[in-house]
Amino acid sequence: MKGSSLSLEIAEPYAQALMSVSQSNNLTERFGEDIRSLLDLLNNSPELREFLSNPVIREENKKEILQRIMGDQTHPYLRNFLMLLVDKRRIAFLEQVCEQYLALLRQLTNTVLAEVVSATELNDEQRQSVIDKVKTISGAQAVELKASINPDLIGGVIIKIGSQILDASIRGQLRRISLSLGGV
C-alpha cells in the first residue's frame, strides 16, 4: 500500500490538516523533528508498523503504544493528532501522512530532499559538499539529505533530487565508458 495513489489520497488531507495546526501555532519545525523521529522508528521497527496497521488490534492498545513511544517530549497537538488517526482508523497510513507532512514542510521552507547513495558513509566535509552542490543545482535555501550506502558503487555518489539523478559514481563512469567504447 506504500506509495499507492489511494494511500496518498487518504494521507494528504491529514498531512495538510496537521500542517495547518502546526502553522497556526508556530510549530512546523518542532512537528517536523518529531515526525522525522517517528518515521525513523517506523522504518527501523517493522513490528511497530505491523502492529499499528493491524485491524485486529484494538484502538486502545494502539493508543497506549503511541503514548509510550511519543512520551511527554512530543507536543500534545501532535499526540492528539496521532490519537485521531487511530480513532478514524487511519493509523495504517501514518507513514504516508508523515512523509506528506515533511514534503509540505520542505515546500514551505524552500528545502529540497536529496537522496544520496554512496559507496561508503559520507564524512561531514563530503556531506557539506553535496549540500552545496544540490543548493546550486536546485536553487533551494536548504537541503535535507537522505543518505544510504551501496558498496557496489565502488566510489563516488549518486544524487537524486526529485526526478533528476546525478550519477557521479565510479560504477556509473565505468558504465558510460563501456557504452562509449561499444559504440566505436
Describe this structure in words.
This protein has 184 residues and is an alpha+beta fold. The protein folds into two domains: 5-107, Peroxidase, domain 1; 111-182, no CATH class. Helices cover 61% and strands 15% of the residues. Strands 2-1-3-4 form a four-stranded mixed beta sheet, sandwiched between helices. A hairpin with a 2-residue loop joins strand 3 (156-161) and strand 4. Helix 1 packs across helix 6, helix 2 packs across helix 3 and helix 2 (28-44) packs antiparallel against helix 6 (94-108). Belongs to the ATPase delta chain family.
Question: Which descriptors would you attach to this protein?
Answer:
single chain, 184 residues, alpha+beta, Peroxidase, domain 1, 2 domains, four-stranded mixed β-sheet, 4 strands, 61% helix, elongated, membrane, ATP synthase subunit delta
Record the SSE blueprint.
Elements: H1 5-24, H2 28-44, H3 46-53, H4 59-70, H5 76-87, H6 94-108, E1 111-118, H7 124-138, E2 142-149, E3 156-161, E4 164-169, H8 170-182
Parallel strand pairs: 1-2
Antiparallel strand pairs: 1-3, 3-4
Helix pairs in contact: 1-6, 2-3, 2-6, 4-5
At the first level of CATH, what is the class of the largest domain? Mainly Alpha
Low confidence ranges: none
Q: Specify the helix fraction band.
A: 55-70%
Lateral arrangement of strands in the main beta sheet: 2-1-3-4
- How many domains, as an integer? 2
Shape: elongated
SS elements, strand count: 4
Q: How much is the average pLDDT?
A: 91
Number of helices: 8
CATH topology name of the largest domain, in short, is Peroxidase, domain 1
* First-last Cα distance: 46 Å
Fourth-level CATH superfamily of the largest domain = N-terminal domain of the delta subunit of the F1F0-ATP synthase
Structural class: alpha+beta
List SSEs in N-to-C order: HHHHHHEHEEEH
User: What portion of residues belong to β-strands?
Assistant: 15-25%
Largest sheet: 4 strands, mixed
State the oligomer: single chain
Integer-rounded radius of gyration: 20 Å
| CATH-level-2 architecture of the largest domain | Orthogonal Bundle
